[in-house]
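Box 3.1. Reading complex inputs
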Amino acid sequence: MAWKSASFSPRSGPPKSGEKVSTAIEKHRPAMEVILQKAQRASEERREAIDKIKDPELRKSAAR
Amino acid sequence: MTHRMFVAFAGGGAKALIHLGALRALEAKGVDFKGLSGTSAGALVATLKASGFSADELLNPLDKTSVISRLGEIRPSIRQAKHLFGRWGWWRVWLFRTAMPVLPTILCVSLFSVALSLVLVGALLAWGKIFSAAAISIALVGLVGCVTTSLLSGLARSREFSEALGILLQQRIFPADTGRIVRMGDFGRDGRPVLKIVSANLTTGKMELFSPERTPNVPVADAVAASISLPIIFEPLIIDENLHMDGGIVSNLPAWSFDEERELDPDAITLAIEIQTATERRILNRLNWLGAFLRTGLFGSSELNLRAAGQAERLELSTSLHLLEFDLSVDRAIKEVLDAETAAMAKLDKWLFQIPETYAEACRFTKGLVDDVIEAALDQRNPKVRVAIAIPDVGHTKSLRLRYSTGYESHHDERMLIPIDGTVAGQAWKTGDSWFELAPLSPEFSLMAPEHRLRRKALRSDLKWVLCIPISIGDGPVRFVVQIDGGRDLPEDETVGTMITSIETDVKEFFGMLADRFKEMEE
């Protein structure tokens, strides 16, 4: 396990449902990609906008 | 989405031109201005905006019209910004501005000349030339008196400007009521935002906050004139037998003036727009510290203006403009305003709009993912999942703030400040490991100390489990913790172990990539 716990110690139980979990997660991959692309675009647009600022002091403060 | 905002504008003379750029950015974001405050030139911008002027009306980059042309229609002598200083005022201010860099030299030469004159007077007296000595003495006293009086009483007069401003405000707010004086009490009602203006009341020795509640009868134009009365530049202003000077002496960035309003409306954002002077460190020694001392005294405590509850953010903008550069061309002014708009937009996106909204969207997405995974693995519907990002407030080192949350609508711990010591999120923050705990939480995560009494009451009462995942970029330090919790029991078996492992892996990867995309914006 990649995580730690002071209160959870798994006992044997019903059969592992790894496949169901993977399917449920896969369903959300496209939405995840959309958010990441949006973040990438925002970052690039910001860089372009800052590069257009002529006043050097304002450019520095915008980049901070 | 409309953002309700209380906005404070810092003073800064001609540098305040960049407030117009910030205003353009806020208007483009569709901000609903609930209150505006300002000091000095910031007070003028706040007043005009509160009176209903848009950023375009203050300075339109397309047709190059500005509020100065409107003032010129009222007082034809006002044709450019420099004419706000009165007929001869601008020339005196211009001379002062030109002389400023060589002021120490001028002072030394003046003192030397006075000393030389005194020696000459002594010599003339010794030679028995009493009348010549008396004439030089009178001329010397007269000259020193004139210079001192001129500096103490101010190089420029604000009366003409304040009269024109008063009429301009009346024409905008009460167009059918010629002669009506617009007073502080006219703001904060009839759809107008609250307006607050700071000046230094030298008579009482205290800061004066002009506001609709405290000073409802004070004419707004007088309050603005008092606030802009920079010592030496403008004459001090007397209101109700009290002598006022520039508010920058006491509080150059009055974001605090909305403390009560933001307690009453905690979802509203308070934005303090600050003008920074220089970005580089100054090289100081034992002799050249005076200017830096004054700058630090006036502008150095801006962080204190935001030390209050609520969502207070600071928008810092630097500019190459000089404090007294009121004679810049319209084209340069427009360029500066458009640059400031771009800079403000970039910073607002970073702190208030794009990044926060994307993280909020990522939290909503994560909730949907966890809901689906729990349903798929355990056939458990409506697991009452909540997701938030725990991240330190600026300057905080012992606590994390729950932000960008989803699922917290009916809970009291939304946006709560949680200590790093004694919480699962804090443990994840400190150790860099993900932690999954079932309720009831062990004493080390239960905030048992007496100082947490109120915090314990606000915690989720139906908490059944919590998963905290620290997010970092590569091997870097933890940037924030994603806190996911649920309100329905999870069985303590291998299925849950597998499920939590999958959620942890995916959420960590997703938020890690998101933080990486925003790395440049955040740094």
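In summary: The beta strands of chain A are 3-4.
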